Amino acid sequence: EEAVFLRKKITLLRAFSLLIGSMVGSGIFISPKGVLKNSGSVGFSLVVWFACGLLSMFGALCYAELGTRITKSGGHYIYILETLGPLPSFLFLWAEFFAIRPANSAVVSLAFGRYMLEPFFAPCAAPVPAVKLVSLLGYYMVLTLNSWSVTWSARLQTALSIIKLLALALIIVPGMMLLAQGHTENFQDAFDRQSLLLDKLPLAFYAGMFAYSGWFQTSFVREELVRPERNIPLAVIVSVITVIVGYMLTNISYYTVLGMQDVLASPAVAVSFVQRAFKSLISVVPVLVALSCFGTMNGGIFTFSRTLFVASREGQWPPLFSMIHIRRHTPLPAVMLMFPLVTAMVCIGDIYHLMNFFSFSRWLFIGLATLGLIVHRHRHPELHSPFKVPLFIPISFTIICLFTVAMSFYSDPVNISIGCTMVLSGFPVYYLIIHRQMSTHFLWTKLSSFFPPLSDYLTHKLQLLLEVVQQEIKTY
C-alpha cells in the first residue's frame, strides 16, 4: 500500500552509535596482544595505538568529505567506482565479499563466543567447538534482526554502544586508580629499542587499525541518514576522538595491572585483567565484552548489506540483491548473502591469521578510496562540498596505507599473498563478464542469454519466497 524504499531512519544519535558500536568491539579486547607482540615493547605499543587513532581520524575526515561529495550509499565501493572507475570498484567488491567481510565477521563472532563462554570455564580455556557454536548463534541472531527491522537494528546499536562504553570504563577506572597509587613498575624500560621489531610493525598497525576499524560505517548508509551533510562530519569527529581517548586509557590500564608478559600470554586480555584487578566483576566484564562484539557484528551486517545493495543497483552484482522486503523495508537478500561464507570461516578460522588475511585487502582499498578523493577534487574543482579537509590529510593517509600494505608482504608473506591472490582473481571475472555487460546486469544476464527460462524462473521464485521488489523511489 506504500512505496518500497529504504527510509531515512538514522539520526545523529544513531549515526554516532553506529560508529561507536562498530569501532569499540572485539578489537580493544583482542588487539592489545597483537600490537604488543609485533611492536616489541609497552612504550612502542602505546605509540602504535595513538598513531593508529590519528591515522583513523585522517581517514574518517577523508570519508566525511567523500560522504558530502558523493550522495550514494555503499562506502568504499561507491567511492572507488565514482572516482577511479568500475574495475577497481569491482575488485574491491570481489575481495570484500569473498575475503574481507566474512573474515572480519568471523573474527568478531569468534571473539563474541570466546568471551561469552569465558566465565563458565575459567580459569581454563573454553572448548573450541563450544566457542564456534556460540559464535555462530550470535551471528545468526544479528542476521535475523537486520532482516526484520532497520529501526530495531538501530535501537539495538544505540543500547549496545552504551554498554561498550561501560565495559571500557570498568577497565579504565581500576587501572587508573592503581596507577595513581604509584604502580608504575610495568612501565620501566617501556621503550626498549632492542626489542623493537621493525619488520613486524606493519602487523602491529594492522592489529591496531582493526581495533579502530568502523570509522567509515556512516558512508555505507548515506542514503538513510537524516541531514547527512551535517551529521556525517559531526558524528565522525566526535566518535573517533572518544574512541582514541578510551583506547589509550584502556591500554594503559592493561599494562598497569598485567604487564607485558601477562598480556602476551593471555588468550582474552580483558578477562585476565578482571581476574587480577576486579575479581568481584569476574563474571560481568566478559559478558559486557561479548555484548560489545555483538554490537560490532550488528553494525557490520547493517552496513555491508548496503554495499551489496548498491553494487547490484550499479549493475556489478545480481539484480536480486538490490531488492527490498515489501513490508519490512530491509534489503533482505543482501543481508542474507553473507550467511554461508561467515559460517565457513568461523568453523575453520583462527583469529590472528584471519586478521592478517583480511587486513591487506581492506587497507589497500581504503587507500585507493582516499586516493579517489584527490582525483575527484582535481576532476571537479567546481563542485561545492559542505565539508572539506586540507589536501595533506588525504595525501598522507593514502601514502601510509599503501606503504603499510607493501611492507606487510615482508612481515607475513603467506597470509598477505593469499589476500593478494584473492584480489587478483577478480580480474578474469571482470573482463569476461562485467566489462562486456556493463550496460546490463552481471552474471544473471549472461546466463539468461543461454537459459532465459531458468534464470527468469529462479529470480521470480526467489522474489516470491523472500517477498522482495525493486526500490520504487530514488533516494540519492
Question: How would you describe this structure to a colleague?
Answer:
It is a single chain. The protein has 476 residues and is mostly helical. The chain has a single domain (12-439), classed as Amino acid/polyamine transporter I, CATH 1.20.1740. It is built from 20 helices and two strands. It has helices at 12-23, 27-39, 42-69, 76-84, 86-121, 128-148, 150-180, 201-212, 228-257, 260-265, 269-277, 285-313, 332-336, 339-348, 351-379, 392-411, 413-424, 426-434, 442-450, 452-466; strands spanning 323-325, 468-470. It has a two-stranded antiparallel ribbon with strand order 1-2. Helix 3 crosses helix 16 (392-411) and helix 15 runs antiparallel to helix 16 (392-411). The radius of gyration is 22 Å and the shape is globular.
Produce a short descriptive summary.
The chain has 476 residues and is mainly α. It contains 20 helices and two strands.
Q: Tell me the Rg in angstroms.
A: 22 Å
Structural class: mainly alpha
* Name given to the CATH homologous superfamily: Amino acid/polyamine transporter I
Q: End-to-end distance, in Å?
A: 23 Å
Protein name: XCT protein
Subcellular location: Membrane
Transmembrane segments: 12-30, 42-64, 76-100, 120-142, 162-183, 203-221, 233-257, 277-297, 332-354, 360-377, 389-410, 416-434
GO cellular component, one term: membrane
